[in-house]
Amino acid sequence: MPMLKEEEWGLAEYYPMDASWSYDEATETLGIDVKQNHPYRDGSAPNIIFVETMTQNFSRAGINKIILTTEGKPGIDLGNYGPMEELSINAETKNRRAYLFLKAEGIHNPYLVPTKEQHKTIGEAFTKMLKGDETGYLSASLPENFELAQTERNEDKVLEITLEKNTKLDESFLPNLEAILMTASEFDYSGVQFINANIDQLGPFNLNEVLPLPLAPNKKNIN
After folding, report:
1. Are 21 and 120 contained in the same domain?
2. What is the pTM of this model?
3. Which residues neighbour 100 within 8 Å (Cβ) at sequence distance 6 or greater?
4. How many domains in the chain?
5. Beta bridge partners of 69
6. pLDDT in tens, 211-222
7. What is the pLDDT of residues 139-170, one digit of tens each?
8. Alpha-carbon separation of residue 153 from 27, 127, 141, 206 (angstroms)
9. 185 falls within a domain
10. Which residues have C-beta within 8 Å of that of residue 27, sequence separation ≥ 6?
11. CA dihedral in degrees (170, 172, 177, 182; nearest 10)?
């Protein structure tokens, strides 16, 4: 895909995937066979993207599970995930997840990656965003000094976030704000409104207005 700047973005060449495919209609099972020197084990980004791509792309394709093999032998080494022999597909729409940071070498802004687990409330999701992922390759998407006085849902389904007076925002908070907006989109909010922010403008966002929610994370310009 010549229009995609994988090296510049810290990602490996992904499509078309270097793998052989098979499908068993009777068991609704997809088989993926990769070469011994496949690129999906190296670094943190490729193996995470491999798993997310497989489980999300086929979640509504009538596939129950994906069988993974390497040159015909069971399992694929997926780096941080370790050897995996199959991936289960959940056909239900995933939501109520928190978005964490995935840092790629040489890339200033981190990528946003959803957690595998779902959260009962937006407050629980924010707690996860402050702590990061226990496995270590997804980091916190909210800084330690980010303190909320309260969060409320108004009659227009807007998430109102009231900040503590000692919470100071600056331009470095822009990736964190994008993580908040993506997380809010998982909880059926219509937008996000900050109350008591110390600045009026953060990047392209006017913090005096209701902020719209993004359709997807990690927007890139391919022109």
Report:
1. no
2. 0.64
3. 112, 113, 114, 115, 128, 129, 132, 133, 138, 139, 140, 141, 179
4. 2
5. 33, 74
6. 999 877 765 544
7. 999 999 899 888 999 999 999 999 998 899 99
8. 44, 18, 22, 20
9. yes
10. 64
11. 170
